[in-house]
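Reopening: structure tokens for the iron/sulfur cluster complex, inputs below.
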Amino acid sequence: MYIFFLATGLAVTLFLFFAALVSYFEHENRAVRFFLGSAFVTILIYGLLLISVKPLPELLLWVMVGLPVGLAILLILPIDLTARHIKPSPKPNFRFDERDIMFSRRLLKPGSKRFEDYYRAHPREKELDDVWRKKPGLLSPKARFYDPVWFNAADSSFETVERMHPFVDGEMSPETINLDPESITKFLKDWLLRSGAHSVGVTELQEYHWYSHLGRQEPYGAPVEAEHRFALAFTVEMNKDMVGYAPFAPTVLESADQYLRAGILAVKVAALIRKLGYPARAHIDGNYRIICPLVARDAGLGEIGRMGLLMTPELGPRVRIGVITTDLPLKVDGYSPDKTMIDFCLQCSKCADNCPSKAIPFGDRQWDHNVLRWKINPEACYTYWTISGTDCARCIQVCPYSHPDNLLHGLVRKAVRRNSLARTLAVKMDDVVYGRKPVLRNIPLSFGNKAYRENDNKIETK
Ligand code: SF4
Ligand code: SF4
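Re-run output (same inputs, fresh job):
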């Protein structure tokens, strides 16, 4: 029995040192301290018992071996007592109007006929939008977190995406090449993955995937035609370190860079499909006909979480999405609601706790039309952006699903998907190891001569 006692103590200690090493490379200082401290406590307990109690009572040996081994086994067994009771949301039975989203409303020019017409029909939105219209604005030099280099770098990437808008669609080859759906789907997926996508999936398009009317492109207000049958959706990873500086300038540069990367991939794949003789359109930042998170979810890439974003199993919400719609016959991936993720969000609420504008709701999902979901307050969120000048992303940064896709977090993710106790423990441990409200990190290279402090994020968004 002594050998099992020693082996258990050694295994626990090695695991904790391994976790500390991984955390060191992830620049998670609090986690490094936690795991190193726990490793030394483990050495102390097993070492002291070994030295001071001779011989060790049989019962104590069993306890010291049985507790860690038993807990590890308990956490990996497929025992789910909570997720199975979760009700999946019905699919939307309506289409969203793109004119109603914040990114369309921000383009309305005060005094213009479009502006007057929209707000005459939406007086409630007028009142809310008047608040952020008085603030400096996204990437504005007057914004709270302005930095001349970081902000202009982000602006350059956004501008480059905008320059790609004319290439989202185009003429297709007059000659159609017959292709086996399975083979061409595999080719396109492999190509996207090799080009930098993190995950790729295919869905058959539904009415609710399409916006009902255009809000950001001309002709403004034109009905959107549900023109294609299939969608190829993919995610690109946002750099963990860059998101780690949320809500400061690096996070908005990272968003812009990943919109650009997703845009390049979508445009080039759509171009290939048209060369093969099939219609295809890339949906890229500022030029969408479809609602990316819904399409990506139905393509099997993840679930919609509390913060209203797509949560992928490996990177959580720390991704951006690109979509190509087409009539090229593709092999469709299945989607089944991920109740374990919804269950995790029900217990977690860390994003809601850290949101500086209190835009993310606490509590359970609510009915919105015929959909069961967490509905964030887009005006509060956007108002914060117009004050900070960045797209914030504090919710993405603190989400426990946003940890890197490596062995350590992979083990936690596997357990969380199989076991309800593991979910509860993971929610609690994430707070202990990384902090319920992780400290803000100063930006790595500031050109604005400003060191940010905790209080800088306390912004009144009313
Ligand atoms: S922070 Fe927690 S509640 Fe929010 S989306 Fe992530 S897992 Fe869900
Ligand atoms: S981006 Fe920031 S303000 Fe908006 S919901 Fe997330 S945490 Fe809240």
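The pocket of iron/sulfur cluster (ligand 1) is lined by residues 305-307, 344-345, 348-351, 399-401 (CB under 6 Å). The chain has 17 helices and eight strands. Marking as resolved unless the reporter disagrees.
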